[in-house]
Amino acid sequence: MEQPSDLELLRGYACDGDESAFAGLVERHRSWMLAAARRRLGDVHLADDATQATFTLLAEKAASLAGSNRPSLAGWLFHAMHFACIRARRSRARQVRHESEAGAIRAGENGDDKPDLELLTLLEETIAHLPPADREAIALRFYRGIDFAGVGRAMNTSAEAARKRVGRALVTLRQQMLCDGVDAVPDELLEAPSPNGATTMTQQPPVTEFPVVSCEFIVADVEANLDFFEKLGFRRRWTETPDAMGRLPRASLASGVARIWLRRAAADENAHPAPGSACTYFWIDSPDALVAHRESIIAQGVEASPFFDDHSLRNFTVRTPDGYTVGFFTMYKT
User: Fold this and answer.
1) Among 37, 232, 233, 284, which one is least packed by beta carbons within 10 Å?
2) How confident is the model at residue 75 (pLDDT cuts 50, 70, 90)?
3) Helix, strand or coil for residue 289?
Protein backbone atom coordinates (compact mmCIF):
# COMPACT_ATOMS: atom_id res chain seq x y z
CA MET A 1 0.00 0.00 0.00
CA GLU A 2 1.34 3.39 -1.00
CA GLN A 3 2.35 5.61 1.90
CA PRO A 4 0.53 8.96 2.22
CA SER A 5 2.54 12.02 1.24
CA ASP A 6 3.71 14.59 3.78
CA LEU A 7 1.00 16.95 2.55
CA GLU A 8 -1.73 14.36 2.99
CA LEU A 9 -0.61 13.69 6.56
CA LEU A 10 -0.37 17.40 7.31
CA ARG A 11 -3.86 18.03 5.96
CA GLY A 12 -5.17 15.18 8.08
CA TYR A 13 -3.77 16.90 11.14
CA ALA A 14 -4.63 20.50 10.18
CA CYS A 15 -8.10 19.88 8.74
CA ASP A 16 -9.33 16.83 10.67
CA GLY A 17 -7.39 17.12 13.93
CA ASP A 18 -5.87 13.68 13.33
CA GLU A 19 -3.03 13.47 15.87
CA SER A 20 -1.88 10.16 14.42
CA ALA A 21 -1.24 11.91 11.09
CA PHE A 22 1.10 14.38 12.79
CA ALA A 23 2.73 11.51 14.67
CA GLY A 24 3.35 9.91 11.27
CA LEU A 25 5.15 13.03 10.10
CA VAL A 26 7.28 13.04 13.24
CA GLU A 27 8.14 9.36 12.80
CA ARG A 28 9.03 9.91 9.13
CA HIS A 29 11.35 12.89 9.63
CA ARG A 30 12.59 12.88 13.23
CA SER A 31 15.51 10.49 12.72
CA TRP A 32 17.31 12.45 10.00
CA MET A 33 16.49 15.79 11.61
CA LEU A 34 17.84 14.71 15.00
CA ALA A 35 21.01 13.33 13.39
CA ALA A 36 21.56 16.55 11.44
CA ALA A 37 20.90 18.74 14.49
CA ARG A 38 23.28 16.63 16.61
CA ARG A 39 26.05 17.09 14.05
CA ARG A 40 25.40 20.82 13.99
CA LEU A 41 25.24 21.26 17.75
CA GLY A 42 27.42 18.42 19.04
CA ASP A 43 25.03 17.87 21.95
CA VAL A 44 22.20 15.34 21.98
CA HIS A 45 20.06 17.38 24.37
CA LEU A 46 20.38 20.62 22.38
CA ALA A 47 19.72 18.65 19.19
CA ASP A 48 16.56 17.17 20.68
CA ASP A 49 15.42 20.66 21.75
CA ALA A 50 16.03 22.05 18.25
CA THR A 51 14.20 19.12 16.63
CA GLN A 52 11.27 19.48 19.02
CA ALA A 53 11.13 23.23 18.37
CA THR A 54 10.97 22.53 14.63
CA PHE A 55 8.04 20.14 15.00
CA THR A 56 6.30 22.60 17.31
CA LEU A 57 6.66 25.24 14.59
CA LEU A 58 5.32 22.76 12.03
CA ALA A 59 2.23 22.22 14.20
CA GLU A 60 1.74 26.00 14.48
CA LYS A 61 2.10 26.46 10.72
CA ALA A 62 0.13 23.35 9.75
CA ALA A 63 -2.98 25.21 8.59
CA SER A 64 -1.08 27.53 6.23
CA LEU A 65 1.24 24.78 4.96
CA ALA A 66 -1.72 22.46 4.32
CA GLY A 67 -2.93 24.89 1.68
CA SER A 68 0.31 24.63 -0.28
CA ASN A 69 1.05 22.25 -3.13
CA ARG A 70 4.32 20.85 -1.74
CA PRO A 71 4.01 17.04 -1.44
CA SER A 72 7.19 16.81 0.70
CA LEU A 73 8.11 18.84 3.79
CA ALA A 74 11.78 17.84 3.95
CA GLY A 75 13.10 21.13 2.57
CA TRP A 76 10.81 23.21 4.80
CA LEU A 77 11.82 21.19 7.85
CA PHE A 78 15.52 21.54 7.03
CA HIS A 79 15.12 25.31 6.71
CA ALA A 80 13.21 25.62 9.98
CA MET A 81 15.68 23.31 11.76
CA HIS A 82 18.57 25.44 10.46
CA PHE A 83 17.23 28.47 12.31
CA ALA A 84 16.37 26.41 15.39
CA CYS A 85 20.01 25.30 15.53
CA ILE A 86 21.21 28.90 15.15
CA ARG A 87 19.06 29.85 18.12
CA ALA A 88 20.29 26.88 20.17
CA ARG A 89 23.95 27.68 19.40
CA ARG A 90 23.48 31.29 20.41
CA SER A 91 21.82 30.22 23.64
CA ARG A 92 24.72 27.84 24.31
CA ALA A 93 27.27 30.57 23.55
CA ARG A 94 25.62 32.97 25.99
CA GLN A 95 25.68 30.28 28.65
CA VAL A 96 29.35 29.53 28.05
CA ARG A 97 30.27 33.20 28.22
CA HIS A 98 28.51 33.49 31.56
CA GLU A 99 30.31 30.50 33.06
CA SER A 100 33.44 31.34 35.01
CA GLU A 101 35.13 28.03 34.26
CA ALA A 102 34.73 27.48 30.53
CA GLY A 103 38.05 25.65 30.36
CA ALA A 104 36.44 22.38 31.43
CA ILE A 105 34.21 22.53 28.36
CA ARG A 106 37.06 23.27 25.98
CA ALA A 107 39.36 20.66 27.52
CA GLY A 108 37.34 17.85 25.99
CA GLU A 109 37.53 19.23 22.47
CA ASN A 110 39.86 17.61 20.00
CA GLY A 111 41.66 20.31 18.04
CA ASP A 112 42.22 17.95 15.11
CA ASP A 113 38.44 17.58 14.66
CA LYS A 114 37.58 21.28 14.68
CA PRO A 115 38.25 21.95 10.97
CA ASP A 116 35.77 19.17 10.06
CA LEU A 117 33.14 20.70 12.32
CA GLU A 118 33.67 24.13 10.78
CA LEU A 119 33.45 22.63 7.28
CA LEU A 120 30.24 20.79 8.14
CA THR A 121 28.72 23.92 9.63
CA LEU A 122 29.64 25.94 6.54
CA LEU A 123 28.16 23.24 4.30
CA GLU A 124 24.83 23.18 6.13
CA GLU A 125 24.69 26.98 6.42
CA THR A 126 25.05 27.04 2.63
CA ILE A 127 22.38 24.36 2.11
CA ALA A 128 19.96 26.44 4.18
CA HIS A 129 20.36 29.37 1.77
CA LEU A 130 19.77 27.35 -1.41
CA PRO A 131 16.60 28.05 -3.43
CA PRO A 132 13.67 26.06 -1.98
CA ALA A 133 13.56 23.39 -4.71
CA ASP A 134 17.32 22.75 -4.48
CA ARG A 135 17.15 22.62 -0.68
CA GLU A 136 14.24 20.15 -0.92
CA ALA A 137 16.22 17.89 -3.26
CA ILE A 138 19.32 17.92 -1.04
CA ALA A 139 17.30 17.23 2.12
CA LEU A 140 15.43 14.33 0.51
CA ARG A 141 18.53 12.76 -1.07
CA PHE A 142 21.18 13.20 1.61
CA TYR A 143 19.24 13.66 4.84
CA ARG A 144 16.23 11.40 4.36
CA GLY A 145 18.35 9.04 2.27
CA ILE A 146 15.83 8.63 -0.55
CA ASP A 147 16.92 7.40 -3.99
CA PHE A 148 16.41 9.54 -7.10
CA ALA A 149 13.17 7.79 -8.00
CA GLY A 150 11.80 8.61 -4.53
CA VAL A 151 13.04 12.19 -4.74
CA GLY A 152 11.29 12.50 -8.09
CA ARG A 153 8.00 11.20 -6.69
CA ALA A 154 8.22 13.54 -3.69
CA MET A 155 8.84 16.52 -5.97
CA ASN A 156 6.32 15.48 -8.67
CA THR A 157 8.97 14.89 -11.29
CA SER A 158 10.94 12.05 -12.87
CA ALA A 159 13.95 10.25 -11.39
CA GLU A 160 16.19 11.72 -14.10
CA ALA A 161 14.94 15.25 -13.41
CA ALA A 162 15.55 14.67 -9.70
CA ARG A 163 19.10 13.49 -10.41
CA LYS A 164 19.77 16.61 -12.45
CA ARG A 165 18.22 18.81 -9.75
CA VAL A 166 20.49 17.29 -7.09
CA GLY A 167 23.50 17.64 -9.40
CA ARG A 168 22.78 21.32 -10.05
CA ALA A 169 22.22 21.91 -6.34
CA LEU A 170 25.62 20.38 -5.55
CA VAL A 171 27.25 22.59 -8.18
CA THR A 172 25.58 25.63 -6.60
CA LEU A 173 26.79 24.50 -3.18
CA ARG A 174 30.35 24.23 -4.45
CA GLN A 175 30.23 27.65 -6.10
CA GLN A 176 28.87 29.31 -2.97
CA MET A 177 31.40 27.57 -0.72
CA LEU A 178 34.21 28.77 -2.99
CA CYS A 179 33.38 32.27 -1.73
CA ASP A 180 34.44 31.04 1.72
CA GLY A 181 37.71 29.58 0.49
CA VAL A 182 36.47 25.96 0.34
CA ASP A 183 37.31 24.48 -3.04
CA ALA A 184 34.79 21.60 -3.04
CA VAL A 185 31.77 20.15 -1.32
CA PRO A 186 33.48 17.56 0.95
CA ASP A 187 32.70 14.03 -0.21
CA GLU A 188 32.91 12.64 3.33
CA LEU A 189 30.09 14.97 4.40
CA LEU A 190 27.72 13.75 1.68
CA GLU A 191 28.31 10.01 1.72
CA ALA A 192 25.83 7.47 0.42
CA PRO A 193 22.81 7.15 2.72
CA SER A 194 22.94 4.39 5.32
CA PRO A 195 20.19 1.73 5.41
CA ASN A 196 18.28 3.52 8.18
CA GLY A 197 17.94 6.62 6.04
CA ALA A 198 20.48 8.85 7.81
CA THR A 199 23.65 10.08 6.18
CA THR A 200 26.75 8.52 7.68
CA MET A 201 28.53 11.39 9.38
CA THR A 202 30.40 11.08 12.64
CA GLN A 203 29.38 13.06 15.71
CA GLN A 204 31.51 16.16 16.29
CA PRO A 205 32.48 17.99 19.50
CA PRO A 206 30.28 20.78 20.93
CA VAL A 207 30.19 24.18 19.25
CA THR A 208 31.08 27.14 21.47
CA GLU A 209 31.81 29.67 18.73
CA PHE A 210 29.88 30.72 15.63
CA PRO A 211 31.35 30.25 12.16
CA VAL A 212 32.28 33.27 10.11
CA VAL A 213 29.47 34.12 7.70
CA SER A 214 31.23 35.08 4.50
CA CYS A 215 30.00 35.94 1.01
CA GLU A 216 31.43 37.49 -2.14
CA PHE A 217 29.80 40.02 -4.47
CA ILE A 218 31.09 40.58 -7.99
CA VAL A 219 30.51 44.29 -8.60
CA ALA A 220 31.04 46.99 -11.19
CA ASP A 221 32.45 49.55 -8.73
CA VAL A 222 34.17 48.29 -5.58
CA GLU A 223 34.46 51.75 -4.00
CA ALA A 224 30.74 52.48 -4.43
CA ASN A 225 29.87 49.16 -2.81
CA LEU A 226 32.25 49.83 0.08
CA ASP A 227 30.30 53.03 0.78
CA PHE A 228 26.99 51.14 0.49
CA PHE A 229 27.92 48.32 2.87
CA GLU A 230 29.28 50.81 5.40
CA LYS A 231 25.75 52.24 5.54
CA LEU A 232 24.54 48.72 6.37
CA GLY A 233 26.83 48.61 9.41
CA PHE A 234 29.90 46.90 7.97
CA ARG A 235 33.37 48.36 8.56
CA ARG A 236 36.14 48.40 5.98
CA ARG A 237 38.57 45.63 6.81
CA TRP A 238 40.95 45.30 3.89
CA THR A 239 41.50 46.82 0.44
CA GLU A 240 43.85 45.83 -2.34
CA THR A 241 46.17 48.32 -4.02
CA PRO A 242 44.30 50.34 -6.69
CA ASP A 243 45.07 49.54 -10.30
CA ALA A 244 46.55 51.97 -12.85
CA MET A 245 43.14 53.61 -13.27
CA GLY A 246 42.82 54.17 -9.52
CA ARG A 247 40.09 51.54 -9.16
CA LEU A 248 40.01 48.94 -6.41
CA PRO A 249 40.14 45.35 -7.69
CA ARG A 250 39.14 43.78 -4.34
CA ALA A 251 38.13 44.75 -0.80
CA SER A 252 36.38 43.35 2.27
CA LEU A 253 34.25 44.58 5.15
CA ALA A 254 33.32 43.04 8.50
CA SER A 255 30.63 43.22 11.18
CA GLY A 256 30.75 40.78 14.07
CA VAL A 257 31.15 37.29 12.58
CA ALA A 258 30.04 38.44 9.11
CA ARG A 259 32.44 39.17 6.26
CA ILE A 260 31.64 40.81 2.93
CA TRP A 261 34.07 40.35 0.05
CA LEU A 262 33.88 42.64 -2.97
CA ARG A 263 35.56 41.92 -6.30
CA ARG A 264 35.39 44.06 -9.41
CA ALA A 265 33.91 42.16 -12.34
CA ALA A 266 36.30 41.17 -15.09
CA ALA A 267 35.58 42.20 -18.67
CA ASP A 268 33.77 38.92 -19.40
CA GLU A 269 31.81 38.80 -16.11
CA ASN A 270 28.37 40.09 -15.22
CA ALA A 271 28.33 42.39 -12.20
CA HIS A 272 24.65 41.65 -11.60
CA PRO A 273 23.17 38.61 -9.80
CA ALA A 274 21.82 35.71 -11.80
CA PRO A 275 18.01 35.46 -12.00
CA GLY A 276 16.64 33.64 -8.98
CA SER A 277 19.77 34.17 -6.89
CA ALA A 278 19.17 33.60 -3.18
CA CYS A 279 19.18 36.49 -0.75
CA THR A 280 22.18 36.73 1.59
CA TYR A 281 20.97 37.10 5.20
CA PHE A 282 22.73 38.38 8.32
CA TRP A 283 21.60 37.82 11.90
CA ILE A 284 20.44 40.62 14.23
CA ASP A 285 20.26 39.74 17.94
CA SER A 286 16.68 40.83 18.76
CA PRO A 287 13.47 42.17 17.17
CA ASP A 288 14.10 45.62 18.72
CA ALA A 289 17.64 45.67 17.35
CA LEU A 290 16.30 44.67 13.92
CA VAL A 291 13.89 47.62 13.94
CA ALA A 292 16.66 50.00 15.04
CA HIS A 293 19.01 48.65 12.37
CA ARG A 294 16.44 49.20 9.62
CA GLU A 295 15.79 52.74 10.84
CA SER A 296 19.54 53.45 10.85
CA ILE A 297 19.88 52.17 7.29
CA ILE A 298 16.95 54.26 6.05
CA ALA A 299 18.31 57.35 7.82
CA GLN A 300 21.44 57.03 5.66
CA GLY A 301 19.44 57.09 2.45
CA VAL A 302 19.25 53.35 1.74
CA GLU A 303 15.85 52.05 0.64
CA ALA A 304 14.72 49.07 2.72
CA SER A 305 11.81 46.69 2.21
CA PRO A 306 8.94 46.38 4.68
CA PHE A 307 9.29 43.68 7.34
CA PHE A 308 8.47 40.14 6.21
CA ASP A 309 7.58 37.01 8.20
CA ASP A 310 9.03 33.61 7.36
CA HIS A 311 9.08 30.56 9.65
CA SER A 312 8.53 32.73 12.76
CA LEU A 313 11.36 35.00 11.65
CA ARG A 314 11.19 38.73 11.08
CA ASN A 315 13.35 40.09 8.28
CA PHE A 316 13.81 42.88 5.76
CA THR A 317 15.96 43.30 2.67
CA VAL A 318 17.89 45.95 0.73
CA ARG A 319 19.35 46.04 -2.78
CA THR A 320 23.04 46.69 -3.46
CA PRO A 321 24.14 49.09 -6.24
CA ASP A 322 24.52 46.07 -8.56
CA GLY A 323 21.13 44.53 -7.73
CA TYR A 324 22.08 41.87 -5.18
CA THR A 325 19.57 41.31 -2.37
CA VAL A 326 20.90 41.50 1.19
CA GLY A 327 18.66 40.77 4.18
CA PHE A 328 18.72 41.02 7.98
CA PHE A 329 16.66 38.71 10.20
CA THR A 330 15.91 37.72 13.79
CA MET A 331 13.65 35.32 15.70
CA TYR A 332 10.34 36.52 17.11
CA LYS A 333 10.57 34.18 20.07
CA THR A 334 13.25 34.60 22.74
Assistant:
1) 233
2) confident
3) helix
